[in-house]
Amino acid sequence: MINSLKITLSLLLPLWFLISFQTKSMAVKNINHKIVLKHPGEDIPVEVTLVEVQDSDGLPIAYFTDVESVICLEQVCKIVSVRIYWNNIGVYQKYELENGATLEKYEDDLFDPEDYKKLHTILANIDSPYKEVYLDEILTVVDEHTEDIDAVSGATALELDEKDTVPGAALTCFTLWHWVNGDIVSIIKNKTGESVSNKQLQQFLVDENETYFYIAIAELQKRKNYSKEFIDTIIKRGLKDDFLLRTAFNYLKGASVENYLYAAETLFFKGSREQKLTTTRSLINTDYKVSKGYLNNFSTQFSKLDYQEVSLLLELMQDKNPNSKVVIENVLPLLSGDFIIARRAYWFLNNETLTTKQEREIKCFYKKHKDKL
Amino acid sequence: MKRREFFKKGTTAAVAAGVIPLVTASCVGAKDMVYDRKQDKWFDLGTGKTGSNSRKKTVAYDVAVIGGGAAGICAAVAAARNGSKTVLIQDRPVLGGNASSEMRVHLNGVNNIKGKAERETGIIEEILLHNRFENEQESFPVWDHVLYDFVVREPNLTLMLNTQAIEAVMDGDKIKSALCWQATTEILFTINAPVYIDCSGDGLLAATSGAEYRTGREGKAEFNEKFAPDEPDGWQMGATLLMSSKDMGKPMKYSPPSYAIKYTHEGGHKRRKFAGFHEGIWWIEVGSDDDIIADFEENRHKLMGYLHGVWDYIKNSGKFPEAENLALDWVGSLPGRRESRRFIGDYIVSEKDMTEHKHFDDAVAFGGWSLDEHNPGGIENISEPPSYFHYHFEEVYQFPFRSLYSKNVSNLMFAGRNVSQTHIALSSSRIMGTCALMGQAVGTAAAICNKKNVLPREVGQKYIKNLQEQMLRDDAFIPKRPANDPNDLARKASLIFGSTTSSGDAKKLINGFSRDIDGKNNHWQSDGLSADLQLEWESSISLSYVELKCDTNLQRNIMMRKDSRNDELYFNGIPNELLKSLSLEARVNGKWIKLGVIEENRTRLIKFKFDTIKTTAVRIKMTETYGAENVKLFEVRCYA
């Protein structure tokens, strides 16, 4: 297989991704997966062989598969086999043709060298217009002058910017774009997750490319692996990258109650605003029983929080830790601070069981601000 | 006595009345019918014995809108919603004007600015979204009914179809009445209103009022227009007759009718193309260099001849093998008009106002279709390209209010292709989406005229800010003109925040810009659903309205077209960004109380109206979109 890869036609692609599996010494194993894919141009799902290339450590480093260049409805087009390559997170890398094979355009025209480059660019664009084009639109004759669209009717043919298509080869672009960017991408991610070791998953969790993080989280959930080691890594990443917090908590809520609460506490106390808000929301929604003592500890932070954080934390206390003396004591000082926060604290305290002295304090607040409550 | 009752009662009544000779009860024929001549109005109507129905009626409204196309509908709905009792007078049996099923012209707007749409919002957006829900199949006859529904459901609006405003009755420089002929009932209506809006395209009412207008092309010098001819002339862009065909699955023959005009395409310009011919060809067009309205019937006949001539060429020249199985499925009989009268206002918009993006303090609308001037001669001059796309805009241009009212008839406004502009400016602004924005502007202005008891010019001079602010509140967009409504309590909030944020900032929801534009984002987007947006005021406020503007992806078209495109630029379904389910709560005495729930929202502008409450905070809980993972908002407003 490796030899056959080396003799495949090198197309005039602008970027030759020197991915590691092309080095004989690195790639040690190819694994064939029979998979079934849906393609918007095919009436029924199609079975293809997806080849996973692993290095000597068993780490998937690439995938490839062979597909037909064009979906041909009237049996008049020339079909050649195209080999498509992805990296281990399903990002398209390149395509290759069988030795000597060429791609064809409408009316027997052959692809120019520039067309091969452009096809590569189109396939690499995950937001290509081909994403939402229907086959019957492709089959309509394409008007090459796209600007002459009158207010009255306009051309009905598919009109794509020239940068987005190879003129005369829209069907080939459509066929290959959907093979490259269709369901196979998530299949590759799953396969990678399944193939890697726990040690490799640890690496995925810290990789700068967040796709590895998502793959690792999905795989850890499948493996039901909530070890402290993984949780610590996820906490570390969550403290660094706010945007991963939602995914992180989606995983953490499956951990044991001890580990979940440990993670929540760490993220809240060590994190900044987003970590505090996400953690508090998670604690409001968790089904785990959370002790008073644990929640009381959170209330020590009130004076350091902004309105939204205070409000959400008070919602948590009201819901899961009502009438806590510690919390009440920590909330009372808020009455003399920023008014909007003070008012929120007042409405919280108003529903709590207070001592006579505390009652006096909030009555005093009411008297002073009754017009603004 | 009703006729059926007569037969039911048989002869008994007749005998009792003693009117006819006794006949056998078993065979009563037509000759034997007896009438109560004093009461049988249906019988006596023809003879006039019981008097005939009056064929003249006088009715009064606060605003009379003439013309039921995109501009007229938006004008009428805007006036009605802003408190004026309004009548919409349409001379055809259906609404929609050029985009009705009678003509089937695409309803386009600012479809493409550097590869992305910059969709019109406001009433036209609401109509197009309504169409996405009710007419997913994009049928033009169904579109007629979508528009009908949109208009007749407005409580303050009366629709008169098959009715043409034929003459203005003047009182000094004001239109006192519009005489309107309703063809189906043979009634001549005298419609009295303090304000008239002519959105009829040709502008017959406005013309008979003596409102100044011009036709034809200005010369280069008059407005320093680069794309105008050297000297002025009378040429007006033509009307087009469309058709559509159907694949019958087998070869279909076609023979042209007697009136077909032979077409050969010999010497035809290379840009005169046939792409998409099965859904009509826009360059089957005939204009005029003289009185295009007087020429209309002659031109219609010609257009029917050209339509069949071109179809004959497609079917029988041998050059279109792909047409073998096609047969004409619908042929238009009413050409879609592009140009005739352009009424003169206090300002005439010209080419450079558009290409140089002139800022108008009285801007009320915008456009951005290319300067798309069709060739002189139309199909009778095929050696020229069918249109000159002189200029493609890279950003939208403004349209001023002073071009939307008459300079010499004081209570007359216009919207659509007949407004105050040059021929070259018209080549862009004639697009229906742009006309619709003008419509919303003049409808809103008419309501201000009534509220303040002023004329349109005074709205421009004294109340232009009121007009702009009301339009912006009603979801219109005016380029470079952020909303700054002093009555909007959201702007006075001490805090505004979203429960989560994946892009933008909740504070941007009160910055006055209700779309992302000019390279700046003006939105707040949640991180997942459900999501809350909360506003807090330091002091208690009285609140009766909360209004939101949500995302509908204005960069992708949802226009009404025949081609049902579904790609990066056009979408043929409900925008998945649209907010579907939400509720509103206010905090009263420390408790959150529910003020409203919307389960199946269909609009970009979402309004909650409730009994006035005193509160210090509101919370909008958003639970579902039509598919998007996050919810995105562009504006929140609160009013007492």
From TrEMBL, chain A:
Superkingdom of the organism of origin: Bacteria
Put simply, this protein is called Uncharacterized protein
Q: Which organism is it from?
A: Flavivirga aquatica
The top of its lineage is: Bacteria, Pseudomonadati, Bacteroidota, Flavobacteriia, Flavobacteriales
UniProtKB/TrEMBL annotation, chain B:
Q: Which Gene3D superfamilies match?
A: FAD/NAD(P)-binding domain, Galactose-binding domain-like
Q: What keywords tag this UniProt record? A: 4Fe-4S, Iron, Iron-sulfur, Metal-binding, Oxidoreductase
For molecular function, the Gene Ontology terms on record are: 4 iron, 4 sulfur cluster binding; metal ion binding; oxidoreductase activity
User: Pfam families from the xrefs?
Assistant: FAD_oxidored
| Identification of the protein by name | Fumarate reductase
The species this protein belongs to is Flavivirga aquatica
Q: What is the lineage of its organism?
A: Bacteria, Pseudomonadati, Bacteroidota, Flavobacteriia, Flavobacteriales
